[in-house]
Amino acid sequence: MSSSSLVVHTQRRQLELYEDNRLIYRFPIAVGKNETPTPHGFFYIAAKAMYPGGVFGSRWMGLSLPQYGIHGTNNPASIGQAVSKGCIRMYNQDAEFVYQHVEIGTPVKIQS
């Protein structure tokens, strides 16, 4: 079984998916606005949910930092912007791809 990890670059607004320390995909994302920035640090996937609804789009991957997560969106035009309350937004199809490749406990590094 491969070992997945995620690296989020808030300034570039990109999320990278690694398997066995090898970059396999890079996705565009939306990040937190200035008043509610996306926190930097080392976290892990603590929860997963399919079809959480509303602003969370088709997938939710909650981080070990409560109330923050990686999720889809009901507003695809927001991807590439700094508009969230600190969460990492993805296009729904991208969130679904990542959801399939990560498990509870997958490491997530968020950096500028």
TrEMBL record:
<dbReference type="GO" id="GO:0016757">
    <property type="term" value="F:glycosyltransferase activity"/>
</dbReference>
<feature type="domain" description="L,D-TPase catalytic">
    <location>
        <begin position="4"/>
        <end position="111"/>
    </location>
</feature>
<comment type="similarity">
    <text>Belongs to the YkuD family.</text>
</comment>
<keyword id="KW-0328">Glycosyltransferase</keyword>
<feature type="active site" description="Proton donor/acceptor">
    <location>
        <position position="71"/>
    </location>
</feature>
<dbReference type="InterPro" id="IPR038063">
    <property type="entry name" value="Transpep_catalytic_dom"/>
</dbReference>
<dbReference type="GO" id="GO:0071555">
    <property type="term" value="P:cell wall organization"/>
</dbReference>
<dbReference type="GO" id="GO:0008360">
    <property type="term" value="P:regulation of cell shape"/>
</dbReference>
<keyword id="KW-0808">Transferase</keyword>
<feature type="active site" description="Nucleophile">
    <location>
        <position position="87"/>
    </location>
</feature>
<dbReference type="GO" id="GO:0018104">
    <property type="term" value="P:peptidoglycan-protein cross-linking"/>
</dbReference>
<protein>
    <submittedName>
        <fullName>Putative L,D-transpeptidase YkuD</fullName>
        <ecNumber>2.-.-.-</ecNumber>
    </submittedName>
</protein>
<dbReference type="GO" id="GO:0071972">
    <property type="term" value="F:peptidoglycan L,D-transpeptidase activity"/>
</dbReference>
<keyword id="KW-0378">Hydrolase</keyword>
<keyword id="KW-0133">Cell shape</keyword>
<dbReference type="Pfam" id="PF03734">
    <property type="entry name" value="YkuD"/>
</dbReference>
<keyword id="KW-0573">Peptidoglycan synthesis</keyword>
<dbReference type="GO" id="GO:0005576">
    <property type="term" value="C:extracellular region"/>
</dbReference>
<dbReference type="InterPro" id="IPR050979">
    <property type="entry name" value="LD-transpeptidase"/>
</dbReference>
<comment type="pathway">
    <text>Cell wall biogenesis; peptidoglycan biosynthesis.</text>
</comment>
<keyword id="KW-0961">Cell wall biogenesis/degradation</keyword>
<dbReference type="InterPro" id="IPR005490">
    <property type="entry name" value="LD_TPept_cat_dom"/>
</dbReference>
